[in-house]
Each structure stands twice: as structure tokens, then as C-alpha cells.
User: Fold this.
Amino acid sequence: MNPQLTWHKITLKLRNPFRLSYGTSEERHAYWIRLKNDEGWGEGTIPPYYGVSTDDMEALWENASENTAPFPDDPEKILSWVGSEGPAPARCALDLALHDRIARANNVPLYKLLGIPRPEPKLSSFTIAIDTPAEMANKALQAKNYSIIKVKLGSDDLDMDRLLAIRSARPDVKLRLDANAGWMLDNAMGYIRDLERFNLEMIEQPLSKDDIEGMGKIQAETHIPIIADESVQTIKNIEDLAKAGVKGVNIKLMKVGGLSPALQMINRSRELGLKVMLGCMIETSIGTTAMAHLGGLAEWLDLDASALITNDPFEGMIFDEFGTVKIPERAGIGAVLKSQ
Assistant:
């Protein structure tokens, strides 16, 4: 019997060493999932700091490859076919591939299959990883075409110097700060008043993912929107964050398990009055293009992965020289091999 799907590991090379509060990477690994007869493609990838076992991911795909149940032809049935057990990025890969299959079979783009608005071109942020203040300012100058920059912080006591250097270099740019859970509550509360002078668009995940109450305390002290990222993996997380008082959430396909749960989480966020950012990991254009189809449902995009790596095997959504995201005019997710 032919397997229902196969998977292939891809090593993604980062354009520059990518330093976050968790550590530094020069490469990341992604998995390309292909349903039988190449009927649909998906992707599963997750940073090492999430603590997800790739062995567990492959075990889930091994079980799925032997699943004798037919692939669903209705997107509403994808969630039950994939199930709720196992690593989120592994479930995401299956979810994306099954959505891609149905949309391709019906010769419609993904957003149309989902019955959501066609995403109009929208600006994404461009990320500058942690470095010396001078080097981060230099990178901000090099990114002169981008009007929104996300600044990674959360590593040491040079964070304010880094932010000052970037703001001095680029007084024109919208700045988003992302601490990647790198601050303690006492430190963050001490920073918060000083941060207001930098005219920040948001502060993303200042505290550890479990300190939801602490992020609410920070929000109570500032008008700058506090946006949760690592804390957002389930609908229950979203409900807890709304109760704590944060202003928004960053939803990523790889950490929530794919399009089906992402749509549920976006809808719940709306019900609770939270703003929505659509983000990505360091991933290929399969994942970012799938997420770009949801662009009409969010206030903010952070889908710059293709600009951060040098060897994306696929082409899909356009991330142009100004950081504008546009979806491709193709059926399905719309990602194809660059050699095609």
C-alpha cells in the first residue's frame, strides 16, 4: 500500500545569525509534507526553544501515512481527521496539506475555500535580531525601504541602548518591540515608562509564556499595546489573556496546529475584543503563504521569514522590497517549487 503522505527535512540557512533571548541560530529545520500523488503540500517547523520533539512529529506523520480513512473533501472535517493529539507543528503540516488538497481540487485559492475576505496587500514588519546597539542601528539603516521594524530584545541590560540606537537611526519607522519572554516582571515594570518615549506600536511577549497575569499588570501601566505570542497556543490561553487585560495576540500556524484552529482562535479573539497579529516562525513559503491568506482577518502582519533566509525552496506569497505582503494568484495555498 502506498503511504498517504511523505515528509522531507529541509535545512533553512539564515541570512544573518538570528539571536533572540533564547539563544542564537544560523540555521533552522523545516519539514515539507506531501500527500500522495502530490495532491497537497504542508509544512511543519518549530524553533528548538519550544521544546517540541521532532521524533514525536515524525511519529505523528508515520501514523497519518498509514491512516486508511480517506482524506476529507470538506475543510470543516479536516480538524477531526488530523486530531488534537501530538505536536502542534506536526498537526499544522497535515492541516495545511489537507486544505491545499481541497482548494487545488476545486481550483480555488485558499482564502476562497475558507470563505474569508480576499486579503489585500498589507505591510508586514521586518525583524532585526539582537546584536550590539551599533550593529542593530546599522541594520535598521540597511532596511531603509521597510516602514515597520520589529526589534528583538530581552537578552541583557543593553536593551534600552539598542532601542535608542535604532530609534535614533530611524526616527521615521514604526517600531515593534519583541522581548521573546526575556524580561522578568520587576524589570519590565521598570522599563515601561522609559519605553513610552520611543513611540512603539506594540510590546510583544515581555514575560514568560506562563506569566499571563504579569503581562496584564504591565498593560495596566501603559497605553502601548501588550501583544502575547508564546503565551498563545490554545483558545483557553486567549480567554485568559483577555481576562488579564492585554490588548492583542500573535497567532502562528505552527504553534496552534494549523488553519482550522487558527481560524477558531481568531474568531474567539474578535469576540473578546483582542487585536490580532498573524506571525510566522523561521519557515518556508508554504507556511507563510498559507498564513497570508488570512491577512484580511488581522490588524498586523509579521510574515518576513522569506527575507530572513537564503534558501527558501519555494515561492509563494510576495514579500516585496517595502515589506508588502501579497498572495499569489494560484489555486490552493499557492506555493510552488522555485525550479518549476
Q: What stands out?
A: Residues 117-337 form a domain with the TIM Barrel fold (CATH 3.20.20.120). Residues 160 and 194 are 9 Å apart (CA to CA).
